[in-house]
Amino acid sequence: MEEQQRKQSKWKLERGQYLGEISALCFLHPPSKISSTPFLLAGTGSQILLYNLESGKITKSFEVFDGIRVHGITCSSSEEESSNTPSLAVSFKIAVFGEKRLKLFNLHIQTPSQVNADLVLIHCLPKFTHWVLDVSFFKSYAVPSSQEERQCLAIGCSDNSVHLWDMSVSRVVLQVQSPEKCLLYSMRLWGDSLETLRIASGTIFNEIIVWKVVPVEPQLGGLPSTSLLEDDMYLSCSSPDSFQPRFQQHKSAHMCRLVGHEGSIFRLAWSSDGSKLVSVSDDRSARIWAVSDELKDSDNGEEEVAGPVLFGHNARVWDCCICDSVIVTAGEDCTCRVWRLDGKQLKMIKEHIGRGIWRCLYDPISSLLITAGFDSSIKVHQVSASISQSLEGQIESKPFIDRMEIFTCRIPNSSEYIGLMDSKSEYVRCLHFTCKDTLYVATNNGYLYHARLVGTVDVKWTKLAQLSEEVPIVCMDLLSKNFPKHSDVVDDWVALGDGKGNVTIVRIMGDVFTPEVGFTFTWSAGKERQLLGTYWCKALGCRFIFTADPRGILKLWRLSDPLPSGSLPYGRTIDVSLIAEFTSCFGIRIMCLDASFENEVLVCGDSRGNLVLFPLSKDLLQDKPTVPQIKISPLCYFKGSHGISTVSNISVAKLSSDMIEIRSTGGDGCICYLEYDPDQRGLEFIGMKQVKELSLVQSVSANNNCLDDSAYCGYAIGFASTDFIIWNLISEAKVVQIPCGGWRRPHSYYLGDVPEAMSCFAYVKDEIIYIHRKWVPKMERKIFPQNLHIQFHGREMHSLCFVSKNTLVEAIGKNFHSARSSWIATGCEDGTVRLTRYVPGVEGWFTSKLLGEHVGGSAVRSICPVSKMHIIASDLTNLSDWTKRQNTCAGDIDNPFLLISVGSKRVLTSWLLRDRNLDKENVFVEQEKTENRNGYNPSSEVSSSMSFKWLSTDMPPKNSSARGKTKVAEKIQGITKELNMNIDATSGPLLLEKGERESKISCDDKNEDDWRYLAVTAFLVKCAGSRLTVCFVVVACSDATLALRALVLPHRLWFDVALLVPLSSPVLTLQNVIIPSSLPFEENIRIGNVYIVISGATDGSIAFWDLTDNIEAFVQRLSTLNIEKSINCQTRPRTGRGSQGGRWWRILSSSVPKK
Q1: 3-class secondary-structure state, position 930
Q2: Mean pLDDT for the stretch of residues 678-684
Q3: Which GO terms describe its cellular component (predicted)?
Q4: Computed over its alpha carbons, how large is the radius of gyration of the chain?
Q5: If you ran DSSP here, which 8-state letter would residue 633 be given?
Q6: Is 1120 helix (H, G, I), strand (E, B) or coil?
Q7: Residue 515, preceding peptide bond in cis (omega within 30° of 0)
Q8: How many Å separate Cα 284 from the centre of its chain?
Q9: In a 3-state reduction of DSSP, which class is residue 1001?
Q10: Mean pLDDT over residues 1135-1146, rounded?
């Protein structure tokens, strides 16, 4: 018995960390000698999280309620604790409330060697009859009779009443009801004593009632006037759900009524002196009110009108705060806005997703702004110095200031007046940073300058070269030799292309202070006005350069090896030879390229979103006396990788000995990932990261040491409308935003180790070069914005599934290590699918990766994993041979691991697991390495080793019936059979031929777009001896039908296999059971499997479906077809942002009359 109990005690269900919305924020200000920055308390679910803002990490989490969400946190002033240890200690009294519950705690924090925290419960107040909306600590009150100090707590409830709780005796000593008794959406208390207490109540009638508590004057024959805290007639708290004092000595007094909002009032905030009140509402506005101490009669109908009204939010405003002369608001439009008291907007922050920002908090001492919302993330921002200086009363220096330097300069021979320019005018054509203080400038009259940025007041210009004819420089590229970080040596190769079709190479040597030209040479690379691009490739070095023309022709030139000194003897020139000409199959201008010398490939991207891959043999690049010019055709191509938008950057990486990964960015705001298999000579789309904050992703700065998905490692650099933006892909935060006029202006950027503290950007406007530089020394560096908590779904989840350790071992192998972590795949209302990792520990939730989203953002209703492979015999005549082949296949099979997600608009998406353990040598050879030589290196945490790539998406064509016209990629005849339910043998044929089905079911259904998939289950089947794998997917539609679909791998082809007759009610859940079958009296000899699907409907019925005949017939028929010749019509997911033409093109195609 004891042994059994001991075994049972090993298995215990423990509550883990909550991952969801952040519903409360509170600063904790310790003494300055303990910490210069405040601590942060955040409420999420029934927990509170303690963060150290100095390090940007979580210290500890505490469970405070059981099944109740934390709605608010209030703290009292800090108290230093005496300690015998060298560490410093501080304690806070905090009140945590949620719904009708309120608890008081002591929070002890020890610093500075290691921050430790402990939470001790002081009081658990009885349950209130209404929700608690706000809590305020009163200062200690001395009782003359007992010579002791007592501290009270004011509690505001949703019935517009205030309770006073005496913490020394743990009792309610006073309850005051407002003269306006009504239900509230919000309440905020101000004051540290009963005499100074002010209450602002936001009613359900879109009004704000301001009132206070005043003492009741004693009447003749009435009760004596005694001190509230000396009164010994307290409530006996024997009943936990009901408490009322036996008499009251105070009453409520109406101060004013604030009218003006046209919607529900969600949040109120008092200024520090109580003279101003800020309110936010359902009407998308915030209002500032001036509140006086004068009492007014609530019955005379007098109303106060607000001062400045803050308009700017595009949806409901959830929260607000006011400090000195700055007001912060946060709303459902996922923006946080900073305002002045006169109503002028100073700053807008938009970094959250989903249903908006629920809480905002501003600390005027440290200039830190905290935002948190429904997406579970907590963002820490620093209010810039320019904003702080523009506020009244903000003249003192801040411990954290914005170090962005902004200065301007002109080229030496630029005109001093601003007027109309023509083609002969001198102006800047190209810019290129090489480091934080060096800039190369090319002009319209053929000049090349070296600009040395000395501080912010002086620019040292050096004229390097001038083209022989005064022709405009139309393109420039730069290749720099890497030197140690603090070296002043310069060895730069600049390639200039002019309007006459000539290419000029300039080698700059020496040091950054006195650069010198090593040599210059020019040759004709094309016809006049036909040279549009010059491109160095770092993998090939300075001996090879590419030129591009408007017709998609790329020329490769070899430069003879210069002398080691870099100088040329008099009269000697460098030989230039054209060794290859690459012709794109699309005939469109090449915009970017990258090459891999080891893998012998060249990848190019054009101005219409296409990728073209060429062979680049080593023999072609090796030194040979005479190499004839050759024309090279593409190996393969990928049409519409970025829809119809320009490909802006390409990087090549080596995945394994025989696989290459290609990453591209483009004008559709997406980062795309593709794989190239040299054996198959084909490009396969494997994933996409959509950076919704950018309309053009110009490049990606990736962390080369990360084993995780590259899309989640580093920064996306690009433009949104007219602003230059650097976006952190890890924390999903905006690092830099600079208004510049857009990407069409000449511009350049340079990033350091940490772009939050080290970045440069230059652009040209009206003949002036504007330079924004932020370069903070490491010792003074504070990285903002920060993300304290991982970002999750911003809307409601409808489905989740565990990606279990056992299935991963089956799919990847025994070398997979989970380290007690759990992976969870989730689908959301906004169409996103995420993979989240939970690791037992302080924070619990380790990382959350966005796999992608459904077409058009359609909601994900169900998701399921599938990994185990089942073998079907191709011929059952020879059982002994079948058994041998089955055993052989079982040993050699490579199990794919798939995730299947379905949802609204009948979208079905599949994801394939990638083993990132094989990708440790994945180092991107980035074209932008010159500008970002040192990639971002995040904190040394354990990186995830699991990743999924997008596999395929299937959805019905427009104007098709959900029952009769589901999408058919290929049609296989002769495999449809009748299918009977096990529970009803007389139900009749449940599978009809496609033509017969369409004739019986009307396709004209106006509610067709409302049909959606509600449930899904899937299993993998492979025919013995075939290289094809079939993923059978059973989906339940909202029109009460079940369909059996088939995804044929690796060709990504979808087939309709069977349609089950409509049921009486929609199916909400599906499961599958695969039962091995054997010969009678021969249990050791398996002859196949029985495939059963179980469905549960909304009317409570459970049905069993036997799909064995259909599955076996489909697989056997499939093995006889030449499926390799089939055309895969969809090669990348549709996003609606330029991919495959976007929605606009689909509308145009639908309007074309049919012939």
Answers
A1: helix
A2: 82
A3: cytoplasm
A4: 35
A5: -
A6: coil
A7: no
A8: 25
A9: coil
A10: 40
Q: In sequence order, which residues have a C-beta less than 8 Å from that of residue 798 and are 6 or more positions away?
A: 827, 828, 829, 859, 860, 861, 862, 903
923: CB partners within 8 A, 6+ apart = 653, 654, 704
Instruction: Provide the residue type at 1075 as one letter.
Output: I
Closest CA to 909 of 979, 797, 832: 832
Answering whether pTM is above 0.85, one says no
- Per-residue model confidence (pLDDT) at position 481: 86
pLDDT in tens, 445-483: 899 999 999 877 788 999 999 987 778 999 999 999 887
The Cα 321–Cα 312 span in angstroms is: 16
- Residue 452 and residue 462 in contact, taking contact as beta carbons nearer than 8 Å: yes
DSSP-assigned letters across all residues of 39-54: EEEEEETTEEEEEETT
Residue 360 has pLDDT above 50, yes or no: yes
Q: In this structure, are residues 812 and 794 in contact, taking their beta carbons and an 8 Å threshold?
A: no
Closest to 488 in 3D by CA, of 437, 544, 539, 560? 437
8 A C-beta contact, residue 676 and residue 683 = yes
- CA atoms of 578 and 585, how far apart (whole Å): 21
The total number of residues shown for the chain amounts to 1155
Residues 6+ apart with CB under 8 A from 622: none
Q: How far apart are CA 790 and CA 845, in angstroms?
A: 8
User: Which pair of tokens denotes residue 926?
Assistant: 């980035």
pLDDT at position 82:
57
Joined tokens for residue 252: 């409520």
Q: What is the pLDDT of residues 102-150, one digit of tens each?
A: 999 999 988 766 788 899 999 999 999 999 999 999 987 655 555 566 7
Q: Quick check: 208 pLDDT over 70?
A: yes
The helix/strand/coil state of 7 is: helix
Contacts of 937 (CB under 8 A, 6+ apart): 703, 705, 753
DSSP state of 841: S
CA neighbor of 339 nearest in space, from 357, 353, 321, 356: 321
How far apart, in whole angstroms, are the C-alpha atoms of residue 239 and residue 360? 38
Mean pLDDT over the full length of the chain: 79
